[in-house]
Amino acid sequence: MTRSETLFQAAQLVMPGGVNSPVRACRAVGTYPRFLSEGRGSHVIDVDGNEYIDLICSWGPLILGHCHQAVEEAVLEAVRHGLSFGAPTEIEVKMAELVTKMTGTEMVRMVNSGTEAVMSALRLARGATGRSKIIKFAGCYHGHSDSMLVKAGSGALTGGAPDSAGVPAEMAADTLTAKYNDAASVRSLLEANPGQVAAVIVEPVAANMGVVPPQPGFLEALRGLCDAYGALLIFDEVITGFRLSAGGAQRHYGVHADLVTYGKIIGGGMPVGAYAGSRKLMEQVSPLGAVYQAGTLSGNPVAMAAGLAQLEILENNPDIYTALERKGKRLQEGLQEIFRKAKVPAQVNRAGSILTVFFSKTPVTGYDQARACDLERFAKWYRGLLEHGIYAAPSQFEAMFLSAAHQEEDIDAILVAAEEVAKTL
Ligand code: HOZ
């Protein structure tokens, strides 16, 4: 038995499913989780000493790869001065200045996770509009707050529980569900609920039903509908923020959202989230406004140090994004060619440096097509990659992430492994 298997056995006795977050239990792909002990650049090493090319990158935030020197040094320096104060610190101001500059927002509030960011942004949207209903999209995932666990993606979809038990019907009643990449479904809901919809929340690139980019005009249509019906547009940029471009999906697609939520990506690997928007909206948050939201660990100095170090590098090195696009495109095209040659029906969806291989004959442009994919083939693909030293997301409904630390040789190695695995599918 490997050390990972032994640890997993012990973990299952004291933690639900042996994990602290469901997808990583690897139940959907018929294996046990590898317990990781180290990350270096684009690689991770497990407790048995196996080394893998990492295509998870902590589910997105490690855009610079593991243990980037500048991030590591910033964290160590911060640690020497104190782990937490629950009081304002200078670095919070620097962080807020940089985040607002990069994202074209005016004010930001730091929180501790994407879940918290979304929960707070929804409260703000409701407080600012005086309306209760929220439109989300089937298969989009916005964290695990009660009202967002309705047709949710990510781990909820992977585990077969897109509508979680434990969410009272009243909590979910104000969540209306539209179809991603289908603006007409949003219009119908807005028309059926006149003056009642506070916000439309969307992952500008859906990445929790697997990666599904927006069809041309979809995000622009949402902007227009929100304006026409007096609802706020919220971009959940937990995955796309600072990754698709330095200014996230807003800049990349040229569509402005009223509120934007960020998650782990803003902390460079530390637990952070944030929500941001115009001064007019954000001034409604306590202590200035009537929308209450608080947290002792919000703006934690160690987390801010990691986040600021990473964001400064991203802001000052636009070539990182050019390289991420090049590597992402090469990986996508290489995989497409491999599946074509192996006669395996597959779609390789991509937006910049995030990708998903869908085992589907037809293009995947939304939730229904993603759900219809061949999940058994995906599980086989996942296990094959792992055996060949590639550490990818253990679910059809998640993304693979590249980082600045991934070299062309890593892409070569992934494609060599993929070719071998594709022959077995
Ligand atoms: N399901 C989340 C990613 N979309 C987090 C997975 C994890 O950390 O296990």
Automatic annotation (TrEMBL):
Catalytic reactions on record: (S)-4-amino-5-oxopentanoate = 5-aminolevulinate
MF annotations from Gene Ontology: glutamate-1-semialdehyde 2,1-aminomutase activity; pyridoxal phosphate binding; transaminase activity
GO BP term, pick one: protoporphyrinogen IX biosynthetic process
Pfam family, any one: Aminotran_3
CC annotations in GO: cytoplasm
Modified residues (N6-(pyridoxal phosphate)lysine): K264
Cell compartment(s), UniProt: Cytoplasm
Cofactor(s) named in the record: pyridoxal 5'-phosphate
Main location (coarse class): cytoplasm
Pathway recorded for this protein: Porphyrin-containing compound metabolism; protoporphyrin-IX biosynthesis; 5-aminolevulinate from L-glutamyl-tRNA(Glu): step 2/2
Keywords of the record: Cytoplasm, Isomerase, Porphyrin biosynthesis, Pyridoxal phosphate
InterPro entries the record matches: 4pyrrol_synth_GluAld_NH2Trfase (IPR004639), Aminotrans_3 (IPR005814), Aminotrans_3_PPA_site (IPR049704), PyrdxlP-dep_Trfase (IPR015424), PyrdxlP-dep_Trfase_major (IPR015421), PyrdxlP-dep_Trfase_small (IPR015422)
EC number: 5.4.3.8
Subunit structure, interactors included: Homodimer.
Entry's family note: Belongs to the class-III pyridoxal-phosphate-dependent aminotransferase family. HemL subfamily.
NCBIfam families noted in UniProt: hemL, PRK00062.1
Record's protein name: Glutamate-1-semialdehyde 2,1-aminomutase
Highest classification ranks of the organism: Bacteria, Bacillati, Bacillota, Clostridia, Eubacteriales
